[in-house]
Amino acid sequence: MDNDPDVLSLFGGYLRANGLYTVLTGTGRACLDEVKKFKKRFDIIILDTDLYDQKGVEVAKEILELNLDQKIIMTTTSNTDKLKRELTSVDISLENILLKPFRLFQLLSTVKHAISRINNIVLKDHVLASYQSSTDEIQDAVQFLKNGIKNNECVMIVARRDSGLDEISEAFTVNGIDADKLMSNNTLLLVDNKEWYIPDEKVDKHRIIDQWNDLVNRSLVSGKKGLRAFCMMDTFFEHNFVEELVDYEHELPLRFDNPFLAICAYKQSDLDKLSNSQRARMVECHNPVWIQN
Predict the structure, then answer these.
(1) How many angstroms separate the Cα of 209 from the Cα of each of 51, 71, 248?
(2) What pTM value is reported for the model?
(3) Domains, the chain, ranges and CATH?
């Protein structure tokens, strides 16, 4: 959203050339109309502060009233402390403010950071994610942890003790994360996935769900905003509990009612073992879904 049609065309053309679908509007009211008619939240809204019909900050407030989780980037010619206070008051971080004039690569970099799938999920999302490599999976787990710390949430990593947890712990160290300190103050939990899901060689979906609810409540009591969990699900395939896994996942809601965010992380090779009906059941009980067709 920008008043200047030349700037609007330049931004839109550049973002489209870099693989992004764009909707262009020239007034605050037109921007709000698009937000209201769009069925799901936009990945990102780029909104100028200096509008003809109303203040950009006021438009941002109305957008966030419609969708509290909407990501917004503000562009502005006003580099003032007052403006920064106004924007932070509506929960728009300083890293999402671009001071004009800026280079187009700066715009693209800011957009890509803001719409990173890990940065764009929130408490109550129930994510289905597939990974071709353990490297990509661990990178997401590290960023997932960082975001949880930033948001004052308890973070739980569920993985195989003899591989996944060791690799994640090493990645934490490389990224300057003091895992021992985080675990000592109950911000971080590292749990073996077999011990969590099938400790007695069977899948009891109600027991697992009760465990999650208990941990969410404990995180709230400890002063955290909620619980986020990155769960590597390979133990179900390793121990031949595929049908039980699908039943368990289907018992969980599309979105959680409590402040709980879960990424159910699968190896793509494991998901490829599912039948069409099993795969369909898995997809219909998650939101968002990050898997290959």
Answers:
(1) 48, 30, 9
(2) 0.67
(3) 5-114 (3.40.50.2300), 126-290 (3.40.50.300)
